[in-house]
TrEMBL record:
Belongs to the cytochrome P450 family. This is Cytochrome P450 family 8 subfamily B member 1. It is found in: Endoplasmic reticulum membrane. GO terms for cellular component: endoplasmic reticulum membrane. Substrate binds at residues 109, 286. It holds the Pfam family p450. The keyword Cytoplasm does not apply. The keyword Translocase does not apply. InterPro entries: Cyt_P450, Cyt_P450_CYP7A1-type, Cyt_P450_E_grp-IV, Cyt_P450_sf, Cytochrome_CYP8B1. One of its GO terms (molecular function) is heme binding. GO terms for biological process: lipid metabolic process. It comes from Myotis myotis (Greater mouse-eared bat). Gene3D superfamilies: Cytochrome P450.
């Protein structure tokens, strides 16, 4: 009999030894960026990076400058920290830096969805058709009605709605936006009460998945957590199955358009179910957290709340007293637009990644040239290099509701770094080929929610002096950040004037 225990143990030692050797042997080649492999073989700087991503990158920039390569869990990432040098990376006319390859691997791992040729372009095409112009206006109307349903209930305002209710602000925002977004995109049955109960149950499971998501991406889950992720994936695949959607009315044209493409490509229904799970997370994973930050900043800055309520009264007029106001008003809210852009500047912290195909020379704004190695990943972290740059945004840590307004009330788009006008002065949605295709829908959802809350409800923090909570360190690099803990608030429906 073969003693498999010792054999497998020896094989494991060989594999680990090989992985460590690969990391130890790598040396910086001529013209490459500074290389910092860290002190731990293979892992490199992974632990420090995961513990506090912004602080780690600050230290690396202070040590190496605006471009450097670090080892993170066996993979080499080249971070470019100078926003004036972003252009060649985001435009990439030579097609040497690939976003799609990394994205396809990620969605397969996280959602179980195996991409088909052309579906990345299809998602952008469907979003252009249905999430802009008349298509977006129709979806905004559906979203407005769904928000009304979720907040007020199927029968409309109850007498107790005018009494004070207390909740966690993060939970409230995430819960309302998720349920309204889910119902708006994936439709209703004939039983509205049951739809709301299902949406509530789905949100509970969604939050379980969302909490595990960052460590899932980094493959840092324990055995029981891996089992839980598998259970949650199967649950969402079943709940969002195309077979179940056939029994619903009002499935959005956006979702229907994309599923039609998959059917035409011969994609099996089971894989379409996984696609739906991916789109649910992509569309609802950031709107609730962003709305939390927006309302919290407004509650902490009365002058901002006052300016926004004044604008809402002017734009909505008497129609603002109804939950069914004309959604075209969203096009006439410069103060709200500035509030949301400032919220996203402070709260959105995505990492933009590109896989290097073939050795590639990057020319920095300074004129220096660096050779990027094939197989490495180029990474941009705009939160630190753009959003928090005091040259671009003076007092970057402060919330200034009018930061993106000119004195005449128009939108401010002129920002500068080192005396040069900068194109990418905020990047909450990514940029280039990786720019979020659903950004117009997401922004409309959040604006609708904030408008409804500030015009129809009295809002106050339970403790007006409570500090803005720090960011949960696990959420850096994954879209909108989330707070390390919730903040209690009170709300009540205003009486009609």
């Amino acid at each position: 009999m073969v003693p498999w225990g010792p054999v497998l143990g020896a094989l494991l030692v060989v594999i680990v030894g090989y992985l460590c050797l690969v990391g130890l042997l790598r040396q910086r080649r001529p013209q490459e960026p500074p290389l910092d492999k860290g002190s731990v073989p293979w892992l490199g700087h992974a632990m420090a990076f995961r513990k506090n991503m912004p602080e780690f990158l600050k230290q690396m920039r202070a040590k190496h400058g605006d471009i450097f390569t670090v080892q993170l869990g066996g993979q080499y990432f080249t971070f470019v920290m100078d926003p004036l040098s972003f252009g060649p990376i985001l435009k990439d006319v030579k097609r040497k830096l690939d976003f799609v390859e990394y994205a396809e691997k990620l969605v397969l791992k996280v959602f179980g969805y195996q991409s088909v040729p052309g579906d990345h372009r299809m998602i952008h095409s469907a979003s252009t058709k249905h999430l802009m112009g008349h298509g977006l206006e129709d979806l905004n109307k559906t979203m407005r009605d769904s928000l009304s349903l979720v907040i007020l209930g199927p029968a409309g305002p109850r007498p107790e709605a005018s009494r004070w209710h207390e909740d966690g602000l993060f939970h409230f925002c995430y819960n309302v936006l998720f349920k309204a977004g889910y119902l708006s995109l994936f439709g209703y049955t004939k039983d509205t009460e049951q739809d709301l109960l299902r949406a509530e149950e789905l949100f509970t499971q969604f939050r379980k998945f969302d909490r595990l998501f960052p460590r899932f991406v980094y493959s840092l889950l324990g055995p029981r957590e891996w089992l839980e992720v598998g259970r949650l994936q199967r649950l969402f695949h079943k709940t969002l199955s195309v077979r179940e959607n056939l029994e619903k009315d009002g499935v959005s044209n956006w979702i229907a358009h994309m599923l039609q493409f998959l059917r035409e490509q011969g994609v099996a229904p089971a894989m379409q179910d996984k696609f739906n799970f991916m789109m649910l997370w992509a569309s609802q994973g950031n709107t609730g957290p962003t709305s939390f930050w927006a309302l919290l900043f407004l509650l902490k800055h009365p002058e901002a709340m006052q300016a926004l309520r004044k604008e809402a009264a002017q734009v909505l007029g008497e129609a603002g007293q109804s939950f069914t106001f004309d959604v075209s008003a969203l096009q006439r809210t410069p103060v709200l637009d500035s509030v949301m852009e400032e919220t996203l500047r402070l709260g959105a912290a995505p990492t933009l990644l590109r896989v290097v195909h073939d050795d590639h020379v990057l020319t920095m704004a300074s004129g220096e040239e660096y050779r990027l190695r094939s197989g490495d990943i180029v990474a941009l972290f705009p939160y630190l290099s753009v959003h928090m740059d005091p040259d671009i945004h003076p007092e970057p840590a402060a919330f200034k509701y009018d930061r993106f307004l000119n004195p005449d009330g128009s939108r401010k788009v002129d920002f500068y770094k080192a005396g040069k006008k900068i194109h990418h002065y905020t990047m909450p949605w990514g940029s280039g080929v990786s720019m979020c295709p659903g950004r117009f829908l997401a922004l409309s959802e959040m604006k609708l929610f904030v408008l409804l809350m500030i015009t129809h409800f009295d809002l106050e923090l339970v403790d007006p002096d409570v500090p803005v909570p720090p960011v949960d360190p696990q959420r850096w690099g994954f879209g909108t950040t989330q707070p390390s803990h919730d903040v209690r608030f009170r709300y009540r429906l205003r009486s009609p004037e």
